[in-house]
């Protein structure tokens, strides 16, 4: 997911960014503990998973697959935001952190959740794992009650972080330079009733939802892949006391795990101890809950069977992309033919560019690229019965009665340094309703940034090396 708020260079147009919670399914990414040592894992759970049954916000499921895609598209579009550049600080180590993930297609929603243990004593929360966000926050209760018996004897609320009960919870003073300067990009507020008052934030999203609370430093407990448990201290979090969510953007989530490349993200903090790499492998977004994998932070790549060679391309960090993970795309081919797409569509310095975002479900192509792709598919699939639009996000749909995968031309996304990403057909021909298949690309604005969403990323290993500014990837079953 992309950071839902931030400032983008004024020379760049308002572009498509997608609501903080459009990750298309929590997935357990499995890691081999015998092969990965000294790493930490967090469990990622798809918001549709049966494991989440009974949690508030998870009991109302889309009635149809098309309704699900409409909701995903709605959340994706609401992620149109600007981004702030960040500096990154990382330290190489041999250890890694592994956090389990679960696919939640059973609930028909589009997020990937990670299970995180926050505070002392620890409380377990389901956080949206979002490569497009900077702020890590949890729903939280803070009364500044201290450690007095009358405070500690109050009943605990298991659905929120009980900050007054956590011995590791330390607020950021509003009078500090951290609040006044460093956190201004994360929307810290100027008000400061007293020097000791906590630094407050009002983190608002484009569609009107918001998270309001105070900044603090906390402890996050993680598991290493060698079986050792570790407490990660001094993690900047948002203690969100008020959630304004008329659109249902935060349904089922206890908060957000900010995985962007910014200075105050979870990835930046974990890099101080484990190095600036993380990897994940997204199973099919329709996979049942029992299929699982992990997101691994550190020098050890997630262990998953590969069905192709590992390729590498350049990550473009900072500048026009801010804390997002940009890539240098040079073109798209359909059926072996390179499409006629103006180069400026892929150049972030000319109003275009491309990012990978685990928090956006669908893949958005800037208008010139979208038109070229759909025109190519129209030619290849001319024998298929085209279906009229039905109000969903997809414009190119056809009857599945005579469908055969062999009829579908292969899509390849080519990178400027020679790497080629070839997603499986099921990642761009989507089964959205009975007898209705749709081309899974969505038109983006132009000028504007194209976004490779998590459905397109599925069944591939992805390794982000922030220190070396490289992205490695390979086809995989992710099991």
TrEMBL record:
Keywords recorded for this protein, A-Z: Aspartyl protease, Glycoprotein, Hydrolase, Membrane, Protease, Transmembrane, Transmembrane helix
Transmembrane segments: 12-31
Active-site residue list: 130, 357
A GO biological process held by the record: proteolysis
GO molecular function terms listed in the Swiss-Prot or TrEMBL record: aspartic-type endopeptidase activity
Peptidase A1 domain: residues covered: 112-474
The family this protein is said to belong to: Belongs to the peptidase A1 family.
Name of this protein: Aspartic peptidase
Organism of derivation: Trema orientale
Species classification: Eukaryota, Viridiplantae, Streptophyta, Embryophyta, Tracheophyta
